[in-house]
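Sharing in case it's useful to others searching the archive later.

Someone asked me privately for the predicted structure of PRTRC system ParB family protein, so I'm posting the question and my answer publicly. Question first, with the sequence:
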Amino acid sequence: MSTTSAAPEIKQLPVSRIRRNPNNPRKGRNAERYAHFKQSVMAQGILQPILVRPIEGDPEHDFEIVAGETRWQAATDCAIELIPALVRAMTDEQARIAAAVENIQRADMTPIEEANAAAELLRQTGNDHEEVMRLLGWSRTKLNARILLTHASEAVAQALVAGQIKLGHAELLCPLGHADQNMVVAKIVEQGMSIAEARERLLKLTRRLDQASFDTIGCTGCAHNSSAFADLFDTSVGNGQCQNLTCWNAKVAAHLEHCLAEAKAEHGLVYRADELPAEGYQTIATDGAKGVGHEQAAACRSCASYGAVVSTRNGEEGKVTGRYCFNPTCHGEKVAAYRAAVQAVPAPAQGTATAAAAGVPAGQPAKSPSKPRTLRTPLRKVAHKAQVQLAHRFMVSHAAYGYAQAISSVVQDIGKDVAPGLTDKILKAAGVPERPATAKARVAWIADLARLDEAKLLALLAQLSALALCRTVAQDDFDHSEAAMLAAEVIGRNSLDPREVFAVDAEYLNLLTKDELLAECAAAGFDSAYEAAHGKGAFKKMVGASKVKELAQTLLAPLEGFSWEGHLPAFLKPAAPKGADAAPSTQAEASEAA
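And my answer, the predicted structure tokens:
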């Protein structure tokens, strides 16, 4: 995926004319490290250029930061007026992707910042995990680990950035709810728990069999059930805990896979909750602050980005919740469009019928947008089939469309095999623009072409189709190329005479060797005519004194009693037609007699 549209240029830019990037993935920085960095900037200045893009419509700024906000902030704090910058023209999407990629590749980026940047890249790429892994050079394990961090509570994120807990602590806490995260992280910091200690305590708390998401019937009486022998007659799992982590994890994994398979059969698009950023999906609501309207909500259900999430949280593994949009950008656009449409509905005047009385639900526009951004693949197949059947029925009954499509196909098929520009030359002579390269423009070209007179279309089609005989012949394959075989077939079936197109001229004679020239003279009677005009032995004498090019010129000079007109070389003379010894009528009579 390219994130550039122009070659970068390094400039010294006024710090005051550069604005922050509102989508910067860096949401926080280590205060101590930043203080040391500012000291370095005060001593040496900004050594590494930041990345900016030109902007318009902002009277106070000329550029926006794509990557390097910490350097820009340090320059601002240290009252530095100019900063080195790479200037690169970018679209909003390119800038967001470049910011995420360039920031995330910095060695001083915190795991929380990496998580936010990875989440942004997932949003930009439509949750394409493989593409994000390619952009960042990460493994799936690392990507999943960073995505998990987006579920961290504010307290956990701050503790990690401040160095109060380690990355392993945060990964243990993220599957918990925010309230539990806040409570546990405070105790970890207070008691100085190691990762191993925190994991052991959490595992004991989270492996209660009475809270397990899977069927625990097989856990009754299990040797690893802490309550198995509390009462020899107890047939329940009670409040026991599973003390076999391997078995517990296997049962949870199997339960999750089963729930995922069922959810996919019911909802189509399904994600595990730990594969998505915390803000990576939105509930489709009909009204309220995040509403999209009744019509749009119904249409969203057919969208390729609509589906469900399977929980991976302890005790809730396999719980399925649906009605989610996994395209936050599109969801935001639909929410904004619906809000604008609602605001555009005038309030009912006093004494007039209300909107509800007129059949419009209160607070809703009379018409709301109602198309999914991308239809689900099975539904796209249905739509495609219906569209093809409808258009096919029309084209069969309207020959002009068939001719137009045939012309497009012929230009595509033959155009690449003939001399460059040959098909365009024929189209231009017919007053038709050249065939577009892109499919979107081409279908419009075909539809426009179908408006022409059918006779004109047929004539154009005939001209273009005949170019099949003009295909370029490669590797001297003049006998077995498709063009050569087609030409021979057409000539043979229609008894065409090569004399209509061939003439003995300088171009032909200059291709021949001396022996070939002598053979042509004998076949055409030139030698006899030359002897009659110049005397006996004159031809042999002329030939002996002439080089091959001179001989060719002599053969074309006017000669009394001789003309090359109508002469055909032996290789151009058509073969006798099959069955030439019996006319069709004679054959028919013989057949009847038999």
